[in-house]
Write a structure and sequence with these properties.
Elements (H helix, E strand, L loop, with lengths): L4 H7 L7 H9 L6 E12 L10 E10 L4 E8 L9 E12 L6 E12 L5 E12 L12 E8 L13 E13 L16 E2 L25 E5 L3 E2 L5 H14 L4 E2 L11 E12 L9 E8 L29 E3 L4 E5 L6 E11 L25 H8 L15 E3 L9 H5 L5 E13 L12 E6 L7 E2 L3 E4 L2 H5 L5 E5 L13 E7 L9 H10 L1 E8 L5 E8 L10 E17 L2 E2 L14 E20 L18 E2 L32 H12 L9 H12 L1 E8 L5 E8 L6 E6 L5 E3 L3 H11 L10 E2 L8 E4 L4 E8 L28 E3 L2 E4 L5 E11 L6 E8 L4 E6 L21 E4 L5 E4 L9 E6 L7 E9 L9 E18 L4 E8 L5 E7 L5 E4 L4 E3 L4 E8 L5 E11 L4 E14 L4 E7 L7 E8 L6 E7 L5 E3 L3 E4 L4 E8 L6 E10 L5 E11 L1
């Protein structure tokens, strides 16, 4: 009987190629897949001994990427063949198709001998391998067709990791590779990079009388089918299923509390239910799955039943007599194409789309942002008096007393023992956002920003996006810009909340939140971390800037409550090119951008108050959050003294084992204890006896260890391995996760022992590393115990979470861990493979330090190549990076494996850079990842961790002249729904967008936008334009304006002297003659309106007549000189003449 879909699917698992190779193929324009035929004739193996009975030989073929040392695809295995006269005839033909037509893609062929074992299985032994080159370095990258004679190499294909290979004399494989264009017609039936013979089962492909269906492939006839009255039911009911799903999703949001007038719980809701439907042949989908939207149907409306069938749904209803549950249904029909084949299946995948009211799509400006972590007070007494008179709520302890005030300019002593002995073990962490001080900025008005909001993340709580906040201004504030603007929350209807000013966000950290042993990590987080805060313009969704708050002032140190007032600068960075004068030859031509300089700009000052209120903890509900299960780095296996618990061999009796992956051999002591347990087994038990025995035996030899780890930091541990036998044993150490490894280097072992102060013996050359072995081997004498050094280190994290990885493993009723990372290194006997001990490591990730945050801005669909200069700092050995007398080992790692991140070793004393290469994405996608910088040889812990955001936007190049208006058209395309859109620019005094008011954007419509750019500063600059959905406060589209601004051609130059500080300024006159024969109206503009004012900004004169321009120069606060440009523009803001006035302040 032919195999069904599930059998074909289980056999067709494919390992994907490296993502870097796929990107390289796309960049090389190799997007079309090509078919190839590989013929394997015979192999001459003079090196193999003759006369081995019952020994057969097999050829195994796999694709390999040499650049990234990565096997991919699926290994093909030939039928076993016997050797005659040192020759093995295979006579097999393989087919595959691939778009990775790169020289690095090769085929690896391995010869394996198969010999029978006493238990009936076969033992496979590698007898050599060879490599087949597929593609050359020619631009067309055609396959190197023709016959091949390939020499075999010693060992297994793992030797490809070594640079040198040794050929086997007189041993070679004869084969032939050529293009196979006939494979194009069946490429939709097979995934790429899969080696397959013509006689294998390929559903959708007609059988061939020759046995090779891929030589001249013929497709089975596909017939159209219609899928009607499709419904999906979820148990126990749709309402309960979705309710439980939403409860799990909302659970992470309940730890964050934002009191206010709209303090009702903001929950995640299901916005849409989608169903992906496609025809699958066990290898791949024949066509791209269709995506349809499901609608909830009332009970009893699951679909109509016809006369031939009582069942009208795809889900069988076991209770025909009971009332039908509420279901999801598709009102329309689906068109599918199928053929009569047993292995074809229609695959359904249910997808739920969620939405949260607090979320914002913040595709905003900002290219390169540093985070400064210092806090300092710079406000005057009058500013502080204005701030305290606003009526902000006080931070008070549980007894109603005002919290003790800490000075953020003073150091904070940290005593962990005092925190441990604090009777108030609960902590209520409070952040009060009080006010924002505006700082005059070029290109924006004095009342910018008007409304703001904040984004940040505290510890492992969910990321916070605050509500919109209004900057309240008064007459006093308008007269003096240095007075802080008090913040007030904005209601949903747009009105300002008249209650308490400011915004308060609080987090409760107590025994109900912390995991066992996590308290010391939380205190360490407060003592060492800074919390990064982004400040956004809530109208335009443009980034205003960023800042950071030191959290160490939230340590109570035995006090009932503490508070501290911080005033921190809100910083951003700008990229500015050098000024380039404009000549007559440059007019109308596009110039090359000049080299850019990074400038740090202060956009404002944020006033924020932090506090920590101690809370009582119910002794009856206290957990051991402050007790670490094992502070020691030494893992000692527990002694098995008692018997197994009675009862069934179910998972409820086998605690956290996953023992079905192991097959241990019971010892004599275990066999005696199992006798009673086996008698209690019932015939109706779901699990087999053999599986239950294996699970219970695994439990007896398993030692659990809880490990708290952070990104990039290595966690060292030693497992005490004991030989319980009276005979020597050789043990192989297996690890199912590469992030947990055995330290085999003696120098590295000693480094970590000294770092962790582990007083155990160090033994040199303890491990035996054998090529092809699953892990290192160690020899144990009878009854001997040794310490096995282990290291856990992870450089990867989930980038779908906003700021840092945070998740809490949950323990089910049967005690198994349903979430979280679980690694089980196994210590097996090297001879029979039976486990001697198992170490189950439960890894709990903890938040990591972010030393610096970068926001990089780049055009969409383009590779970002960036170099970040490493600052000088001290490594653990005491040397300084950048010191010409010391050569420091610097290495980097990236949390995203698809991003190229490296650093180059330069000569001592020279600066060192970190190089990044990030693949482009469509606008307005944002990529976030972490870069870890290590300065110690063994990378024990990162010296710095950088958080990097890459914003991809549509690029618009504009070449213009200062003081003159240039127009540029943009195209805004509508999405699926009608939206009310308004456009905002980052510099409204230099960029005007038409239409400037709110307009309606219909679905799939095209709206033309007119940009009127009138810059006042020469050089290369980046400006930003956002199109915002004003109803939903979501970003529709964002543009990057790359301005290349030239200096104008000067008509005349003047020089005046103006009194300095204390003077009354000076007045001057300039004569201008109308060069036209008719009357014209002209406008006067200046690039320094704060220093120069005109008597009239607009004047009209007749043809050929002259007009006297009155100039009024304001006094300067300091002596010096400045050049001021005066523009005479027409009504269309085109410059007629430009005067340069050099002002000397005495």
């Amino acid at each position: 009987m032919a195999d069904g879909w599930r059998e074909v699917f289980e056999r067709s698992r494919v390992v994907p190629p490296p993502s870097q190779t796929v990107r390289l193929a796309v960049e090389s324009h190799f997007t079309q897949s090509h078919g190839f035929q590989l013929s394997l004739s015979r192999l001459t193996a003079a090196h193999l001994p003759q006369g081995e009975h019952d020994v057969t030989f097999q050829l195994r073929v796999t694709l390999f990427d040499r650049n990234h040392q990565h096997f991919f695809g699926k290994t093909w295995k030939s039928p076993p063949q016997r050797m005659k006269n040192n020759k093995i005839s295979f006579n097999e033909v393989l087919y595959f198709h691939t778009s990775l037509r790169l020289p690095s893609a090769v085929v690896v062929l391995e010869l394996v001998s198969l010999s029978p074992r006493p238990d009936g299985s076969q033992q496979a032994l590698g007898r050599g391998f060879t490599v087949l080159e597929l593609f050359t370095n020619r631009p067309e990258a055609q396959a190197t067709d023709g016959d091949r004679r390939l020499n075999l190499h010693h060992g297994s294909p793992r030797s490809l990791l070594h640079p040198h290979l040794k050929d086997i004399i007189d041993s070679h494989l004869e084969c032939m590779i050529k293009n196979h264009p006939a494979l194009v017609s069946v490429m939709h039936l097979l995934p790429e990079n899969v080696l397959i013979s013509g006689n294998e089962n390929i559903p959708g492909l007609a059988a061939s009388p020759t046995g090779d269906a891929l030589l001249k492939p013929h497709l089975l006839k596909m017939l159209p089918f219609t899928l009607n009255r499709l419904t999906v039911s979820l148990q126990p009911s749709l309402e309960k299923f979705e309710s439980q799903l939403l409860q799990l999703i909302n659970a992470d949001c309940h730890n964050t509390k934002q009191p206010g007038p709209e303090s009702a719980l903001r929950t995640v809701v299901i916005q849409e239910r989608r169903l992906h439907v496609g025809v699958h042949n066990g290898w791949c989908f024949l066509d791209k799955p269709q995506v349809v939207v499901l609608e909830p149907l009332a009970s009893g409306a699951r679909g109509r039943s016809d006369s031939t069938s009582k069942q009208s749904t795809l889900v069988r209803d076991s209770s025909a007599t009971s009332s039908l549950p509420q279901t999801l249904g598709l009102r329309s029909s689906l068109e599918l194409r199928l053929t009569n084949h047993q292995a074809l299946a229609v695959v359904f995948q249910l997808e739920c789309v969620f939405s949260a009211p607090i979320g914002r799509e913040t595709m905003v400006r900002g290219m390169h942002k540093h985070t400064y972590t210092h806090s300092f007070l710079i406000s005057s007494r009058s500013s502080l008096a204005h701030l305290y008179s606003a009526g902000f709520p006080d931070i008070m302890d549980c007894s109603g007393q005002v919290a003790e005030v800490l000075d953020p300019t003073e150091p904070v002593p940290f005593d962990p023992q005092r925190e441990d002995t604090d009777p108030l073990q609960g902590n209520l962490l409070v952040f009060q956002f009080l006010a924002f001080t505006r700082i005059p900025t070029a290109g924006v008005g004095p009342d910018w920003p008007n409304n703001i909001y904040f984004t940040f993340q505290f510890y492992r709580f969910p990321p916070v996006t605050s509500q919109r906040l209004k900057l309240l201004t008064s007459d006093k504030v308008q007269l003096k810009a240095s007075i802080p603007c008090v913040l007030a929350s904005i209601n949903k209807d747009g009105t300002v909340n008249s209650g308490s000013p400011g915004l308060q966000v609080q987090f409760r950290v107590d025994e109900g939140f912390l995991r066992p042993g996590e308290k010391r990590w939380f205190l360490r987080y407060l003592a060492l971390h800074t919390m990064h805060i982004d400040i956004w313009d809530s109208d335009s969704l443009l980034l205003i800037g960023s800042t950071a708050i030191e959290l160490k002032y939230m340590l109570r140190q035995g006090k009932s409550a503490v508070q501290a007032l911080h005033e921190v600068e809100v910083l951003t960075t700008d990229y500015v090119g050098e000024d380039t004068p404009l000549t007559s030859a440059d007019v109308g031509q596009r110039s090359i951008l000049s080299p850019m300089t990074v400038l740090t700009i202060i956009r404002g000052r944020l006033h924020i108050r932090t506090g920590n209120i101690g809370c009582q903890v119910d002794p009856s509900r206290r957990r051991a959050a402050d007790v670490m299960p094992s502070h020691s780095h030494i893992i000692i296996p527990r002694e098995v003294t008692g018997g197994f618990r009675g009862g069934s061999l179910s998972s409820r009796n086998i605690l956290q084992l996953n023992g079905k992956h192991f097959n241990p051999q019971p010892t004599e002591s275990c066999q005696s204890r199992l006798a009673t347990e086996l008698n209690q087994l019932k015939p109706s038990e779901k699990h087999s006896k053999a599986e239950g025995i294996a699970n219970m035996l695994s439990q007896a030899i398993t030692t659990q260890h809880l490990l708290y780890a952070s990104l990039g930091s290595a966690e060292y541990m030693e497992f005490v391995l004991k030989n319980p036998f009276n005979a020597p044993q050789t043990v192989t150490i297996h690890s199912d996760d590469p992030e947990l490894s055995v330290i085999t280097n003696t120098e590295e072992w000693g480094y970590f022992k000294a770092l962790t102060k582990t007083p155990t013996p160090l033994e040199e050359n303890m491990f035996h590393l054998e090529e092809g072995a699953p892990g290192p081997r160690v020899y144990l004498r009878p009854k001997e115990s040794i310490h096995i050094p282990l290291k856990y280190q992870s450089f990867l994290c989930d980038h779908t979470m906003a700021l840092q990885v945070h998740w809490r493993p949950k323990v089910d009723a049967d005690g198994t861990v349903s979430n979280g990372q679980l690694i089980k290194p196994c210590f097996r006997n090297a001879e029979d493979g039976k486990p001697m001990a198992i170490c189950q490591v439960n890894v709990e990730p903890t938040p990591h330090v972010v030393d610096q945050t970068f926001r990089l801005y780049h055009p969409e669909l383009c590779f970002l190549k960036k170099a970040i200069r490493l600052p000088p700092w001290h490594d653990p050995t005491g040397s300084t990076v950048g010191d010409s007398h010391v050569r420091t080992h610097v290495s980097v790692r990236c949390s995203d494996p698809n991003i190229i991140c490296q650093t180059r070793m330069l000569v001592p004393g020279e600066p060192q850079d970190v190089y990044l290469k990030v693949s482009g994405s469509p606008s307005p996608h944002i990529k976030m990842f972490f870069v870890m910088v290590f300065t110690d040889k063994w990378m024990a812990a990162p010296s710095q961790i950088w958080q990097i955001y890459v914003h991809f936007l549509e690029r618009v190049d504009v070449s213009c002249v200062t003081g003159q208006r240039s127009c540029q058209s943009l195209v805004l395309r509508g999405k699926q729904a009608v939206r009310k859109v308004k456009c905002f620019s980052s510099h409204p005094q230099e960029i005007e967008v038409d239409p400037e008011s709110v307009f309606v954007l219909p679905p799939a419509a095209v709206q033309e936008l007119q940009l009127k750019v009138q810059p006042w500063r020469a050089g290369s600059r980046f400006l930003y334009v956002n199109a915002v959905d004003v109803e939903n406060q979501r970003l529709v589209t964002a543009w990057l304006l790359c301005l290349n601004v030239h200096r104008p051609v000067l008509s005349k130059a003047f020089e005046v002297c103006v009194p300095g500080s204390g003077g009354r300024g000076s007045s001057r006159k300039i004569t201008y003659t109308n060069p036209y024969s008719s009357s014209r109206t002209f406008l006067l503009r200046s690039d320094h309106p704060d220093l120069l004012q005109f008597k009239e900004d607009k004047f009209q004169i007749g043809g050929g007549e002259s007009y006297t321009i009155g100039l009024r120069f304001a006094p300067s606060q300091s002596p010096g000189s400045v050049e001021i440009l005066v523009y005479v523009n027409n009504l269309e803001e085109k410059t007629e003449e430009t005067f340069c006035v050099k002002v000397n302040y005495s």
